[in-house]
Amino acid sequence: MLKITKFGGSSVANAEQFKKVKAIVQSDPARRYVVVSAPGKRNSSDNKITDLLYLLDAHRQYHVDASNVTKIIRKRFLDIKTELGLKQPIEKELDEFFAKVPRMSQAEIVSRGEYFCAKLMAEYLGFPFVDAKDTIRFHSDKTIDWEATTSRIQAKTTQYENFVFPGFYGTTANNQVQVFSRGGGDITGSILARCTNADVYENWTDVSGFLMADPKIVKNPEAITHITYSELRELSYMGASVLHEEAIFPVKEANIPIHILNTNRPQDTGTIIQEQSKHKNPYAITGIAGKPGFASIYVYKKHMPNEVGYIRKALSVVEDYNISVEHIPSSIDSFSIVVAEQDIRDCEYELLAKMKKELKPDELKITHDLALISTVGRNMMDKPGTSGKLFAALGENNINIVMIAQGSDEINITVGVKVDDFKKTIRVIYDTFVKKENK
C-alpha cells in the first residue's frame, strides 16, 4: 500500500508538532512520501509564516525596511532546527534568500515557507528532499501540465523510496515559480497521490475530519466518518472548509480516497472522502452548512413562458456587472436570482435600473440580508418525504423560507432565510434529522 501524507501548517508549526509528524510517519511504512505546508500559528496571537512572507513582499514592493519581519521568520525556522538538534545549514540559506528578496517575484517569496519547512522535515525524518520546483509544472494558463508533472514525479519515486516534498508551488514552462491559491498545499498532496497512483491520500490537519454541522452553532455535532466527493463539494461551497476544494479533482478522477486526520489526535477515525462509498450512513443527511451575506433579485412577468429567452436576458444583465449567480429558483411567471451581497453593493441601483429597462418586468424587487443553508446527503434521494420533513420542521419553528433550491442529483436542498434565522435554521434541521433519529 502507498499513502501520500500531507501535513498542514498547524501540524508543522513548531518542534513539538514536528515530533508528532515523525511519530505518525514512522508508525506506518506505507507513508513514504510526505508533503508539508509552511509553519502555521503556534497560538491564537501568532503569525503564519506565509502571512509573514506576504508581508515581506509588501515591504519589498514599497521599498520599506523589512528587518523586523526577516528576524521573526529567521527565528521561527532556527527555533525548530535548534530544538530538534538538526544540522541543516538553514541560516545560510535564509541569509541568501533575504538578500535576493528585492529581485524575487511575489510567488517565489511566499513559496519559501514550504521550501524551508520541507528542508528541515527531510533531515528530521531522514528522508531525501525533493523540490516541487523541479517536478510540478504549470501551463501558461496556470493549469497543471499533467504529462510533464507525472513524468517528473514518477522519476523521483523511482529514484527514492521516501522523500519530503514542499506544498503550495511548482514552476511555469519558463522555470518561474508559480503558487496555488492559499491552502494550495492540499492540492500538492492530491497531485502526488494521482501521479503515484497512491492507495490513499492522507491529509493531516488540526481537526478530526468533518462534522455534521458547525460546532459554533450546534453543540457537539456528530462526526462525518464517510462522505462522497459530491457531498463534500456541496458542503465546502457553503462554508464547511477543512480541505482546499481544488484538492478534490486530481484524486477524484483517479478514484483515490482522501482521509482527513488530526495530527494532535492520530487515534481519531477522521473522515474518508470517496465517491463510491460502501459505508451506510445511519442518517438521511450527511451534513449541514450555510453562510449569510446573500441577496435575492425577484422578477415577475405575466405570461413569461411566451417570451423566449427572458431569463437569459436577465442573466446577461447580471453578467455585464461581473456578478456570479448562486441560485435561480423559478416558477411559471417569476424567478429569483440569488447573488452575494458584496457583489452588488456598489452597483445595485444601476443593475436594477438596467434590468427594468431590458426586461420590462411587471414586478422587480430585491431582498437583502439572506442566509443560505444547504442540507446535503446522498441518502436523501432514497428516503421519500425528506424535503417535506425539513420544510415542516422549519414551519413549526416559525422560520420563514424565502427561497428553495434543490440540485438535480437530489443530494442537496438549499433554503434561503433571513439572516436573523440563520443559526436557528441550522439547529432545527440538525435536531430534526440527527437528534430525533437518535432517540
UniProtKB/TrEMBL annotation:
Binding site for substrate: 50, 114
Domain of life the protein comes from: Bacteria
One GO cellular component term noted in the UniProt record for this chain: cytosol
Pathway this chain belongs to: Amino-acid biosynthesis; L-lysine biosynthesis via DAP pathway; (S)-tetrahydrodipicolinate from L-aspartate: step 1/4; Amino-acid biosynthesis; L-methionine biosynthesis via de novo pathway; L-homoserine from L-aspartate: step 1/3; Amino-acid biosynthesis; L-threonine biosynthesis; L-threonine from L-aspartate: step 1/5
Gene3D superfamilies: Acetylglutamate kinase-like, VC0802-like
Annotated catalysed reactions: L-aspartate + ATP = 4-phospho-L-aspartate + ADP
GO biological process: diaminopimelate biosynthetic process; homoserine biosynthetic process; lysine biosynthetic process via diaminopimelate; threonine biosynthetic process
Keywords: Amino-acid biosynthesis, ATP-binding, Diaminopimelate biosynthesis, Kinase, Lysine biosynthesis, Nucleotide-binding, Transferase
Entry GO MF terms: aspartate kinase activity; ATP binding
Binding site for ATP: 6-9, 205-206
Pfam families: AA_kinase, ACT_9
EC number: 2.7.2.4
ACT domain mapped to chain residues: 375-439
Record has Amino-acid biosynthesis as a keyword: yes
PROSITE patterns: ACT (PS51671), ASPARTOKINASE (PS00324)
Family: Belongs to the aspartokinase family.
Function according to Swiss-Prot or TrEMBL: Catalyzes the phosphorylation of the beta-carboxyl group of aspartic acid with ATP to yield 4-phospho-L-aspartate, which is involved in the branched biosynthetic pathway leading to the biosynthesis of amino acids threonine, isoleucine and methionine.
Protein name: Aspartokinase
Organism: Catenisphaera adipataccumulans
Upper classification of the organism: Bacteria, Bacillati, Bacillota, Erysipelotrichia, Erysipelotrichales
